[in-house]
Amino acid sequence: MELLTYISSTTVLISIVTLAAMIVLCLGPFFLPILRRLKFGQSIREEGPKSHYAKSGTPTMGGIMILTSVTICTLFCNWYFFYWSSMELWMALFVTLGHGIIGFIDDFIKVVLKRNLGLKAKQKLLGQIIMAAALAYIAENYMGRGTDLWIPFLNQEIHLGALYYILIFLVLVGTTNAVNLTDGLDGLAAGTATIAAFTYALVCIYFEQEALAVFCSAVAGAALGFLKFNIHPAKVFMGDTGSLALGGALAAVAVMTKTEILLILIGGVFVLEALSVIIQVTSFKTRGKRVFLMSPIHHHFELSGWSEVKVVSVFWFVGLLFSILAILLLIQG
Fold first, then answer.
1. Which is more confident, 261 or 114?
2. Which of these ranges, 5-19, 51-65, 213-227, 274-288, has the smallest mean pLDDT?
3. Whether the predicted pLDDT of 93 surpasses 90
4. Which of 41, 187, 194, 331 could form a disulfide with 231 if both were Cys (CB 3.0 to 4.6 A apart)?
5. For 40, phi and psi rounded to 5 degrees?
6. Dihedral of the CA atoms 159, 165, 170, 175 (nearest 10)?
């Protein structure tokens, strides 16, 4: 793609980010009082850092604002740019809203019905299996996605066949859970998701998938606008409603652009958070020892003496570095 065209496209994407952010900023003053009146307050786990106890009762399920903004902005912009026929657009929105609904039900059970465990693991898994199967089947048969896995480092593709369906499931489940684990500090998940989503908007422009680029920009803008209310000290949490939806959005776009491996870099912070939990659990079960003071790893740095604001700022910066590396790798490939 020519440089001037890329710059022009990026300008449009930034405008869409701004629009999506403004929608959330307008929703906040109306939506937050409703959450407070309904007493949709977050419960803080007892084994977490003691400094988080003061956050108990902070309204949650704020992910509804993110989903509302993404839906409105995506539909309006794609109507404006005539992308209604884009199967990729509708699939991305389906996967995002689907995971948002799963997260909403989980939040509702925990917050409103006061059942701490929320949805059972099998119930969550069933919903994700359905969405993964739908995404894989439609991507393969109606989008020309095929069943190949692109290796960006080598610029080669590996034919997976039936294993492709397993890959899609792992990408969806892994990404949604990783973003969910990252949502443990004020502004952490929203900020890193903003960076990752906008990076994917640039990736989509590189692959000339304009409709998906619009969608990614809407996701980035909605997450950015949400930061206004979620930055420390948070006035609202996104809950599973938001974190699962954001993870689903990133995973869906990765699948439809054949950049599942690149997602590991773009979502590098999410990967580190998930790996820290896996390492911690494995070490404790096999050796009886913990590697980190607490997992996910953002809590380790908190307990090491870092302020919450410092942890979040550093993780945002690391996320930005991962994204820059991914873009450079894409261009070089």
1. 261
2. 51-65
3. yes
4. 187
5. -85, 65
6. 90
What is the reported pTM?
A: 0.93
What is the distance between the alpha carbons of residues 272 and 330, in angstroms, rounded to a whole number?
A: 21
Res 291 pLDDT > 80? yes
- Distance (Å, rounded) from C-alpha 88 to C-alpha 135? 10
**Is the confidence at residue 255, as pLDDT, over 90?**
yes
Q: What is the mean pLDDT of residues 297-319?
A: 95
Instruction: State residue 46's pLDDT score.
Output: 53
First to last CA, the chain: 14
The tokens for 56 are: 């108990």
Peptide bond into 59 cis (omega under 30): no
Phi, psi of 308 (to 5 degrees): -60, -40
Tens digits of residue pLDDT in 129-176: 898 889 988 888 888 788 889 888 777 889 888 888 899 999 999 999
Reading the block at residue 298, the tokens are 């953002």
Question: Distance between alpha carbon 147 and the CA centroid of its chain, in Å?
Answer: 24
Torsion, Cα 275 281 287 289, to 10 degrees, reads 90
In three-state form (DSSP H/G/I as H, E/B as E, the rest C), the secondary structure along the chain is CCHHHHHHHHHHHHHHHHHHHHHHHHHHHHHHHHHHHCCCECCCCCCCCHHHHHHCCCECCCHHHHHHHHHHHHHHHHHHCCCCCCHHHHHHHHHHHHHHHHHHHHHHHHHHCCCCCCCCHHHHHHHHHHHHHHHHHHHHHCCCCCCEEEECCCCEEEECCCHHHHHHHHHHHHHHHHHHHHCCCCCHHHHHHHHHHHHHHHHHHHCCCHHHHHHHHHHHHHHHHHHHHHCCCCCCCCHHHHHHHHHHHHHHHHHHCCCHHHHHHHCHHHHHHHHHHHHHHHHHHHHCCCCCCCCCHHHHHHHCCCCHHHHHHHHHHHHHHHHHHHHHHHHHC
